[in-house]
Design a protein that fits this description.
alpha/beta; Rossmann fold; 2 domains; 15 helices; Phosphotransacetylase family protein; Phos_Acetyltrans/Butyryltrans; P-loop_NTPase; Ser_kin/Pase_Hpr-like_N_sf
Length: about 350
């Protein structure tokens, strides 16, 4: 049985998507695949058992039927944190290894999902990614997501910590304008340090977007229209806090945007509706007038009423679009295809002894 730990340089890098995509791909090859996420930062109670929300989702998609407690032996609750900081959480690794071997009993491959940062998250209680992977005897893949730049220093430090157990890295969400630098500078730099880049996943708007209906829920707002536009994909947002002429100049350059503006700015609201905004988010809990509502229904643009002020809504939107969880079936399928196209699957299988 082969174990593969999926780590990352920080949170929200794409670990869950990679774990799920690899499980599906290994299954296509006729391999029996298991999955667990030893440390869960998103605890959820299911039938009296604590598990992790991400692990439960992946378990459901794969139909594995594993118990929440086996999949996630260490759910990080508030009570757990208090005990850990007081030095009372005990030694956790034995419960992780026991669950791992139980789930791996009839499997060819075990995919192990990491939590947070591979090097640092969990250090306070002895379950950082390096220690967990080493205890399980698993190889490691690290995901690094482009955020203004790539974390090449971190990847070099991870190689030093993991040694030959680091099977390689995946560079995720890389914009087209940065691809030449990745190919000509970053990949050779990493290769000289013994770090294989197993795939470069390009930025894709579908993977960084959110359905308008989900956006309303996550913002704590409410939909005041009933159009089919609730399924519109929002990949960016624009704040309507300027005059109409300047707003038009910015708006025409954007696609799939939600426009955020005060509920009293009917001039900007009308421009957004006529320009094909993906959604209209009205702040300050100010209800739009009948002309705006009628127009929104006619053109299929959902109108979301939010209680907070424009600045607060924009900050929430920024966080949501960056860290949205993988739940939409369309995004799951699309993301799996992106990984399949970018990943050097043959090289990975060889490193895992599965070739």
């Amino acid at each position: 049985m082969t174990g593969l730990y999926i780590g990352s340089t920080s949170g929200y890098c794409g670990k869950n998507l990679l774990a799920l995509a690899l499980c599906l791909r290994f299954r296509e090859d006729g391999l029996r695949v298991g999955y667990m996420k030893p440390v869960g930062a998103m605890p959820r109670l299911v039938d009296g058992e604590l598990g992790d929300d991400d692990a439960l989702f992946i378990n459901g998609v794969l139909g594995l039927g594993a118990s929440p407690a086996d999949m996630t032996p260490v759910p990080v609750t508030k009570d757990f944190l208090m005990k850990a900081f007081a030095g009372e959480c005990g030694v956790l690794m034995p419960s992780i290894t026991a669950a791992y071997h139980k789930l791996a009993a009839d499997k060819d491959v075990m995919i192990v999902g990491g939590s947070g940062s591979y090097l640092y998250s969990g250090t306070y209680c002895g379950v950082d990614g390096v220690s967990v992977a080493r205890s399980l005897g698993a190889k490691t893949i690290l995901v690094d997501r482009f955020r203004s730049e790539l974390n090449y220093d971190y990847l070099a430090a991870a190689k030093h910590a993991a040694g030959d157990d680091l099977a390689g890295v995946i560079l995720n969400d890389v914009p087209e304008h940065f691809r030449a630098e990745v190919d000509e500078l970053i990949k050779p730099f990493l290769a000289r340090r013994g770090i294989d880049v197993l795939g470069v996943i390009p930025h894709d708007p579908v993977m960084s977007g959110m359905r308008a209906g989900d956006l309303a829920e996550r913002l704590g707002g409410r939909l005041v229209t009933m159009s089919a536009g609730v399924h519109n994909l929002v990949v960016n947002f624009l704040i309507g806090a300027m005059n109409v002429e300047n707003f038009l100049a910015f708006f025409r350059k954007r696609k799939d945007v939600a426009v955020i503006c005060g509920g009293d700015r009917s001039d900007l609201q009308l421009v957004a509706l006529e320009g094909g905004a993906a959604a209209l988010v009205l702040t300050g809990n100010l209800y739009p007038n009948d002309i705006i509502l009628t127009k929104a229904e006619a053109v299929g643009v959902p109108v979301i009423l939010a209680r907070d002020d424009t600045f607060s809504v924009a900050k929430k939107m920024e966080t949501l679009l960056f860290s949205e969880k993988l739940r939409d079936p369309t995004r799951v399928g699309h993301g799996a295809r992106l990984i399949s196209q970018a990943l050097d699957y043959a090289a990975l299988k060889a490193k895992l002894g599965l070739a």
